[in-house]
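Following up on my earlier message about iron/sulfur cluster. Here are the inputs again, as you asked, copied directly from the submission form:
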Amino acid sequence: MENKRKYWIFDKSQKELEKYCIISGFKKYGATQVMKWIYRRKIFDFAEMTDLSKSLRKKLANNFCAETPKIVDTKYEEDSDGYSKKYLIKLLDGETIESVLINYRNRKTLCVSSQIGCRMGCVYCETSGLGFIRNLTSGEIISQILVIENDIENKITNIVFMGMGEPLDNIVEVEKSLDIISDANFIAVAPRKITISTCGILSTLPNIENHKYKIAISLNAADNITRSKIMPINKKFPIENIVRLINNRKPSIHNKITIEYVLIKDINDHIENTKKLIKMFSPSKVKFNLIPLNKEKKSIYLKDLETSDSDTITDFKSKLFKAGFTVTIRFSKAQSVNGGCGQLKAEKIYSQ
Ligand code: SF4
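Thanks, got it. Here's what our run produced:
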């Protein structure tokens, strides 16, 4: 990204900045110094980076822009355990994206977006209804963390790629952002505290596996007919491919994959589905996260879908649990701030 013929510093990897320093006649280490100022100290004015030579500071100011995106709207919800805050963030080109902070029991988890809109077409997802606009750059992914850490004056402890967009559909920029997010010198969130959630793009999943990030796969059905109806990606990567990938994982990888299952009334919540899931997976390889459909009342896109009854949710959980699986139910902490991905942006668009 360029701004008035200047490069946006947040889009540059460490290697790219090192190359820039060397070509410009400075020491390679200048790149690490600049990035520490930006990502650790949150200093975005090159003139204030006092351990850099004056000539490097001047050169950087001439060639790079370090303007951060702006928070344009928020929704806040508090309960006895903590709070959730949803952010609508305006990027430098005027597009908006969402991030959600979930601050519970000393854990500050940030749900980041990886695309503006999404082309995957999952029928239970508000972002899908917005269509696909474009991929985010690595800097746009990272800057969600920076602006929210500045807002809360504290550090984010966990990152989940579960906001707008499919991270594995934007793998190059997502991987580039992860290099900076997980680097102990920079944003310093350990790989084991980063979760990549995918609808099941299996072709690029190994890129993520190799770095030991946690993986969540949205399954949402126990048979291909149902899954293809609610998740078009199933036609390309059907359930049996997901099962094979999980069962063939190297024994050295200890992290269990999380199987996400959005419970939608009369679509995928029949108790028979638990029998199929128990047959497919082993408790040693996966754990389940059941997610009652988060349906914002004003939603146009989700109008025909209903959340499963609470008894059905409890039964579903109990069957999987009795078969030996770890099962959690994620009642979205951000439910009342329209916490489903794309809901705050959708609300803005639909109310115009
Ligand atoms: S659930 Fe995720 S992959 Fe599916 S449409 Fe929504 S953002 Fe895209």
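One observation from looking it over: The first strand starts at residue 2 and ends at 3. Hope that helps, and feel free to reply on this thread.
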